[in-house]
Design a protein that fits this description.
By secondary structure, this protein is an alpha+beta fold. The protein has 25 helices and 35 strands. The protein has 5 domains: 254 residues, 2-Layer Sandwich (BirA Bifunctional Protein, domain 2), CATH 3.30.930.10; 114 residues, no CATH class; 103 residues, Elongation Factor Tu (Ef-tu), domain 3 (Beta Barrel); 151 residues, Threonyl-trna Synthetase, Chain A, domain 2 (Threonyl-tRNA Synthetase, Chain A, domain 2, 2-Layer Sandwich); 121 residues, Diaminopimelate Epimerase, Chain A, domain 1, CATH 3.10.310. It is found in: Cytoplasm.
Amino acid sequence: MLTANEIRNSFKSFFESKGHQIVPSAPMVIKDDPTLMFTNAGMNQFKDIILGNHPAKYKRVADSQKCLRVSGKHNDLEEVGHDTYHHTMFEMLGNWSFGDYFKKEAIDWAWEYLVEVLKIDPKNLYATVFEGSPEEGLERDNEAAAFWEQHLPKDHILNGNKHDNFWEMGDTGPCGPCSEIHIDSRPEEEKAKVPGSQLVNKDHPQVIEIWNLVFMQFNRKADGSLEGLPAKVIDTGMGFERLVRTLQGKTSNYDTDVFQPILKAIADMAGTAYGKDNQQDIAMRVIADHIRTIAFSITDGQLPSNAKAGYVIRRILRRAVRYGYTFLGQRQAFMYKLLPVLIENMGEAYPELEAQRELISKVIKEEEDSFLRTLETGIRLLDKTMADAKATGKTEISGKDAFTLYDTFGFPLDLTELILRENGMTADIKEFDAEMQQQKQRARNAAAIETGDWITLKEGTTEFVGYDYTEYETSILRYRQVKQKNQTLYQIVLDCTPFYAESGGQVGDTGVLVSEFETIEVIDTKKENNLPIHITKKLPAHPEAPMMACVDTDKRAACAANHSATHLLDSALREVLGEHVEQKGSLVTPDSLRFDFSHFQKVTDEEIRQVEHLVNAKIRANIPLKEYRNIPIEDAKELGAIALFGEKYGDHVRVIQFGSSVEFCGGTHVAATGNIGMIKIVSESSVAAGVRRIEAYTGARVEELMDTIEDTIRDLKALFNNAPDLAGTIRKYIEENAGLKKQMEDFMREKEAQIKERLLKNMQEIHGIKVIKICAPIPAESIKNIAFQLRGEITENLCFVAGTINEGKPMLTVMLSDNLVAGGLKAGNLVKEAAKLIQGGGGGQPHFATAGGKNVDGLNAAIEKVLELAGI
């Protein structure tokens, strides 16, 4: 029986024999494409080629791609663990043709690989073809059907509808019919009763799709119409885990050697066995799936967080922790302990797991610990919500309360329902769903983008000339209108551009497009599918006219200084802290730089100073830039350039060198380090377990910062009569203040004791209740101390009411003994009603409550109102 690793290698070898270039998997986390957070299909890394934004280096390509599907139309998250074949992270085996072969070869090679190489019984295979769409003028894909008839009987070739058999990249763009290959893995007796053809695409767990062959031959326009693609594309994707399951004769993906070692480790940890209990099995499948997703995401540079892709990863991790908590009794962090078995099984194919073992482990453990604390908080809040509901005779909590637990505290609805069931209660699910729908609608409205068709003025691709020029003569290739948040913007593609498009942490250039007719402001430059897009608020009145593209050079220079300083900072951190330091993210703007890096403890003030001194020394040395543009990647590595995990590099790369600092980089830089001026680190903090963040200024911003510091010190000196030893003088004042504060506290304690004794002498007993009341200008903290001291001395039948004035504002305080509270009196209710007489409000606990107000003259009346309400 072939192992998972052997199957993966056999696929690559087969297509290599058919003239395909085998390329490495792209990172699962996508950094420079605003249209997508994660790689959710094998074709993602080739989008720019398919869209015609970049020429294909190889006409035929094959790979095994790490994918993640948890959002949008490919959202399988809620099925994961509950069935046998859905996953969050999975591998997609694929082969592509960019304007080379088409349907015949794709079908013939798929058949050859499955039947002749892997020896799958052809009688268990079914193929679907697009049935056509009369409303769009599309006929049945008879071409694909005819090719399938050379391999399969007609009753194994099935028509599929538009949902299943017409693939689209999005609302617009390349699309086309597809042909799915399904396999029937049921026992022979079941096949005899019901033919597999009746179960294809019917969600049967043993009749599943394993390979999808997409024939891209159309382009979908914004109005919904279709036009033919000039260069047709083959894009295939086969679920690796499903293929392994088929070849290993299993009925579940989780029974293969892809997951079994992880499941065994989970079972051992929980003191159980996989296959004993359905709920526990679901929990173990969820955890086994999710640990892969989380570990690979972290290696690709995406840490759990509360925003965008980071929030998706955090949500997946919390889902796994919750299943372990609820069904496997895991009350302590446990997922990070699964990392060794994951690395043992997948480390050979993906060595980045072993290389980042320590970081992955620390990040996962910290996230687990944090969420377990959240679960405890949620349980306490739910306990209170249940108690409040029961107090009013209800057995149902509101959907709003359940949604608040979910939305604010991250407490899952199914856990809320589980705890409620254990207490004989329910939640209003309709109300919860309504709250959820409102939130989703708000998010959709905020993110809704209406994109028009590209208006093409002339064919061509963009040449970036921004490394050498900040002004360049250009013309518009195409443009389109984009509407978002009630704002209309325009996206413009130029044939040549000096504008740097946002990527690699560096923000995009701004500037102007100038023609003889007008000047158009470029407010940002972004990259979409590797295409530089210039964003404007206005469309040129004469878009066909030649123009000059002019970058804002002040902003560019500031960005370049900060970007080059980031490289020097990276090098200095490795020198001071150690070679384990690796970049985990960066942001370069004209105003500042931000650098995230792996390090497992706080960087000390002394270490920060060392780093600053090293960088500033290199700035003063005025080291000239050495740029290696478009050199082979192996040559770059020989120069010492460090490849970052989570980044995808081509065969040819750009390297930036300032002395000993050598890095892969596509950004803009200074001509020599002296142009940076100076660097000053302004903050150092934690981003996640094992990841620190430094923020810094360069150049003129350092001058501004030093001016601010100098002004502050001057003002402080003036406050202390220009004392020569400012620190010593301030320390002396602090010590004197602490002494005076202690004297004041001692004095207040004496004063409180005197007031308490006077109150005890004036205490009245009314209807058996010991009433103590006072109206005087006493500090709030003192009256509280007096109230609790009296309660400690008079343990029964005490009613203490105080009206005080604190900083000119009236305040009402009520203290009751426990037996009066047990008899039905509530200090909070008394003070809330009486506070109306001082034009205020308040509340508190049953035995102690306070209220503030505006009307000092109403204090005496408020005191009497408390006694009246208490029936005294």
